[in-house]
């Protein structure tokens, strides 16, 4: 099994966990998902280092499949964020401005439900950023694979994933 296939399997598992969290409304798994996404970035870097100019069409397709899984996960994260933001606003109502001025401990003790929704929203923002970074890294890797296939050159001199740039603004506000 190739390293890209392993990534795809892990992404598929995480996608299922995220979908289950979205359906159930239970967010206990989010910390685990975020941690595993961080490990995927390392695994992706290892996969990139092992690429050769003979990277097969099937490896490129596996990478495309990984990106499709990432995009479905991004949609699930966006839905969870939207639901958390709406519930946050409903719980606080007119007290939203006052709540946002409180210290963290006062928020948690005075408005525990709103605090929980805020935490969920922030966790999802972190997961969303990780997903976007992985997507950008996979896009770069796919480009490098294609370029290597066209030129017949080594891919090991390609731009390292950590040197790529990415817009981290997600446009969400509560």
Please characterize this protein's 3D structure.
Mean pLDDT is 82; it is low at 154-160. α1 (3-24) packs antiparallel against α2. The protein is an all-alpha fold. It has six helices and no strands. The chain is elongated and about 65 Å long. The termini are far apart. It has helices spanning 3-24, 30-49, 57-92, 96-101, 104-110, 112-151.
Any chance you could write out the topology, listing elements then pairs?
Layout lengths: L2 H22 L5 H20 L7 H36 L3 H6 L2 H7 L1 H40 L23
Helix pairs in contact: 1-2, 1-3, 2-6, 3-6, 5-6
Q: What labels describe this entry?
A:
single chain; 174 residues; mainly alpha; 6 helices
Gap between N and C termini: 43 Å
Shape: elongated
> Low-confidence spans: pLDDT under 50, at least 5 residues?
154-160
Count every helix, treating DSSP H or I runs of 4 or more residues as helices.
6
- Biggest pleated sheet: none
- Structural category is mainly alpha
Percent of residues in helices: over 70%
Rg: 19 Å
User: Helices and strands, in N-to-C order?
Assistant: HHHHHH
The overall strand count is 0
Oligomer: single chain
Average pLDDT reading: 82
Strand content: under 5%
């Amino acid at each position: 099994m190739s390293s890209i296939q392993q990534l795809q399997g892990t992404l598929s598992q995480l996608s299922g966990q995220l979908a289950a969290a979205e359906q159930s409304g239970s967010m206990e798994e989010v910390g685990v998902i975020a941690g595993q996404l961080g490990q995927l970035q390392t695994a992706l870097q290892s996969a990139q280092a092992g690429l050769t100019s003979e990277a097969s069409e099937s490896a490129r397709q596996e990478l495309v499949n990984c990106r499709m899984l990432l995009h479905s996960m991004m949609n699930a994260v966006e839905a969870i964020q939207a639901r958390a933001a709406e519930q946050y606003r409903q719980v606080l109502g007119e007290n939203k401005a006052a709540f946002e001025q409180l210290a963290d401990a006062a928020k948690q003790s005075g408005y525990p439900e709103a605090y929980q929704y805020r935490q969920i929203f922030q966790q999802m923002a972190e997961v969303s950023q990780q997903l976007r970074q992985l997507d950008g890294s996979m896009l770069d890797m796919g480009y490098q694979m294609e370029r290597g296939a066209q030129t017949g050159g080594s891919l090991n001199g390609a731009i390292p994933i950590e040197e790529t740039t990415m817009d981290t603004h997600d446009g969400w506000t509560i």
